[in-house]
Amino acid sequence: MKKNKFFSGALFAENLRRFWPVSAVGLFIYFLSGPFLILTKSVRDNYMYGSVLNGTAGGAMLNNLNFGFLFVHLVLPVVAAVCVFSYLNRVGSVAALHSMPLSRRTLFVTNYLSGLALCVLPIVINWALLSLCGAGLKAFTARALGMWLLVSFTIALFVFSVAVLACIVSGNTVIATLTGFAFNFLVAAVWVCMYGYAESFLYGFEASDIFPQITLTNPWMRAIYCGFTYEGTLRAWHCLVYIAVAIVIAAVADILYHVRKLERCGDSYVFGWMQTIIGFLFAFAFSTMTGLVLFRGIGVWAYVIGFAIGFVLGQMISLKTFHLFSRKTLRNLIIFAVLMALIIGCFALDVFGFEKKVPDPQNVQSVSVEGIWTGSGYRAVTFKTEPSIENVAAFHREILEQRPDEVYEIMPARHSHFTLRYDLKNGTKLTRQYSVESEFVARCESFTKLLQSEEMTGSITGLASIQGEKDFYATRDFPFSLTASDASDSRSFSGAEGQDLLNALINDARYGRMTTVWARQSLYSVEMTVRREFSDKAAAQEYFSSFYGFVNIDSYDGQAFIGRFSFQINGDCKETLEFFEKAGFGVTAAPGTDQLIGVIFGSEEAEGNHIFSLDYIPQSEEGMAVLSSSDMLRAAVEAGYSGKVSESCRWMSVCDTQGGRCVSNYTMFIDIEKLPADLKAAVEQYVK
Questions:
Q1: What span, in angstroms and rounded, lies between the C-alpha atoms of 122 and 134?
Q2: Residue 282 C-beta-side C-alpha neighbours within 13 Å
Q3: What is the DSSP string of 35-80?
Q4: CA-to-CA distance for 112 and 100, rounded, in angstroms?
Q5: What's the CA angle centered on 631, arms 629 and 637, to 5 degrees?
Q6: Quick one: which H or E segment has residue 549?
Q7: Across the strands, what pairs with 108?
Q8: Which string of DSSP letters, residue by residue, matches 253-285?
């Protein structure tokens, strides 16, 4: 009769005796990656480890940015779990061990604890060695070493518990090993797939912060994230949460061990429901990969092809057979196809109303709008006043009513990119990201009001506070230096003339003329240097940051801070352009038709020899085919756009001209072989 106890000391000792080499190899890697480096002092010359010996507790080694530590943290627990539970995968050993006077609970607990000991002992010994080695060099604090021990134990416990669960549901050693690694990243992988579907189907979905969230699913990934983002290491409460989750996973594994059919050893997976889950995960993974990559090319067939490949592989692996024509596989095929259709349908049809959700302005604390061009770069502007928040919400609703044309996704001169980040009064956040036609944004009344809002016009405070030459710091006697973007000419302005230019800049800034819908090529660059007295650099930085455009605090002359500013003047800066015209500075733009001009070049060198910020429309010539017709340009983009370079691909530079000047310029690749016959013939007259 089996004894009813939870632990067998003899079995525990036997596991340690049999599998000690696994633990020894782990300790050896720990030693080489930590104490050995410190003893040889090679750590001093290594960038990744250099901060360890600076007397602080934030060294890269203890923050688990040590690649040797990371490798053992992940691999050792999985190998240890597979070793101590390997008897479940052999008919002879599983029968012999379960015929002994030991209950299943005793077998599970003893094997679990012995496997965990194989993982933890190298960590404890390495911690002791680090303490001894670091003591003489005063490299580590006791708190830093203690946190490393806690974090390392947490990772080992979590990864080991997940790997044990994989061993219990598996009946094959190879499958158990692969499943042990896969299960540790399963939640993260599914999460990434869901983000992929959302980004593909939901207009406005923004996934730039996906990685920090996904790393929460596993302490091994979270430790890497914390180390590389300078957050140091995991917090103690993080570890407690992961430890609690690991205990729950171990309890689930124990329950499954009690209902496991021992005669199923040798199968890929010993539970029928597990075979179904694994089979679906294969179909889901392959369908998702091919769908997200190839959907734009072949449509829904991308998902179907991936689903078929994943389904066949999943059934062969989970059922361990090549005979797939059965009632069971047919049932699985129908169930999996329905589930995939539901998943894709929910995203494609926006069942949960993600796209249509616009926060009520009454519930918004503030909203940040990224993508507004202010002088020298894109800028995020935070709106807090009630009228501005209402205008952002109105702008948001108008964007949803105007979905962009697919062609403009690869023609950025007519495309504006915005990210709206709402901070709601209930403490939650809502983020949306949109790419819309710039002409629509320019006509949008709510966006125009934003440019003239209190938050935007407040940015001219610093500029308007300049009191002429009193604040100018003369550099080579030039308080102002101006350079036209399409010429090498430059000219300085001072005195009353300089004050007139300053007033023109202030007025253009006040009425939002320096702020454009998209990044347009500047016509002039205005530079000035200002000298102001401040109590400290922080106060100077705060003041200077109120200026439009680029700002840099160059120096401190002992009494005042000196700030250098650069303003990019575009075609909307009415008063500044009028000032330049009256001053006879620069070239006056010749009248021209506002349009897109595409130029296909025979080589990259040919493209580099032509600058299209000139006051004329270029003509086709040898090595350069000009597409001045919007229909021709659209046809070229729709048929010939290529994200990859091949022998038949050529450079195409696209200019957005307004008033005879190029205000935006970008390059793409066009595959000549894919162009319509008539357009291909026209291009090949000039480009071979």
A1: 18
A2: 20
A3: HHHHHHTGGGG-TTTGGGGGSSS--TTTTT--HHHHHHHHHHHHHH
A4: 18
A5: 105
A6: none
A7: none
A8: HHHHHHH--GGGTTSSBSSHHHHHHHHHHHHHH
As a whole number, the mean pLDDT across the chain is 77
Tens digit of pLDDT for each residue in 429-446?
A: 888 888 877 667 777 888
Instruction: Tell me the pairing of strands 624-627 and 561-569.
Output: unpaired
Task: Report the distance separating Cα 603 and Cα 688, nearest Å.
Answer: 10
Locus of tokens 């990044």: 519
Q: Report the first-to-last Cα separation within the chain, whole angstroms.
A: 89
d(CA 29, CA 355): 50
Instruction: For tokens 């002879």, name the residue.
Output: 92
What CA–CA distance (Å, rounded) separates 270 from 172?
A: 9
The residue that leads in pLDDT, 49 or 552, is 552
Q: What is the mean pLDDT of residues 615-630?
A: 73
Q: Judge whether 532 and 545 are in contact, CB under 8 Å.
A: no
Distance CA 417, CA 96 (A): 67
On the question of pLDDT at 143 being above 60, the answer is: yes
Using CB atoms within 10 Å of the CB of residue 292, give its burial: 0 to 12 exposed, 13 to 18 middle, 19+ buried.
middle
The tens digit of pLDDT for each residue in 84-94 reads 998 888 777 77
Give which of 167, 525, 203 is closest to 356, Cα–Cα.
203
Closest to 34 in 3D by CA, of 17, 49, 15: 49
In eight-state DSSP terms, residue 468 is G
DSSP 478: B
Determine how many CB atoms are found less than 10 A away from the CB of residue 554.
13
61, 30 in Cβ contact below 8 A? no
CA 149 – CA 137 distance, rounded (Å): 20
Provide the 3-class DSSP secondary structure of residue 381.
Answer: strand
Residue among 156, 169, 166 nearest 113 (CA): 156
- Predicted pLDDT of residue 373: 60
pTM: 0.67
* Greater model confidence, 119 or 548: 119
Please say whether the beta carbons of 504 and 526 come within 8 A.
no
3-state secondary structure of 435: strand
- Angle (deg, nearest 10), helices 272-298 and 186-201: 30
Report DSSP letters for 137-193, one per residue: HT---HHHHHHHHHHHHHHHHHHHHHHHHHHHHBSSHHHHHHHHHHHHTHHHHHHHH
Question: What is the spatial order of strands in the sheet that 561-569 belongs to?
Answer: 490-491, 480-484, 524-532, 561-569, 550-556
Task: Give me the helix-helix angle, 67-84 and 219-228, nearest 10°.
Answer: 180
The pLDDT of residue 665 is above 90: no
3-state SS record for 417-481: EEEEEEEECCCCEEEEEEEEEHHHHHHCHHHHHHHCCHHHHHHHHHHHCCCHHHCECCECCECEE
Residue 673 predicted with pLDDT over 50? yes
Residue type, 10: A
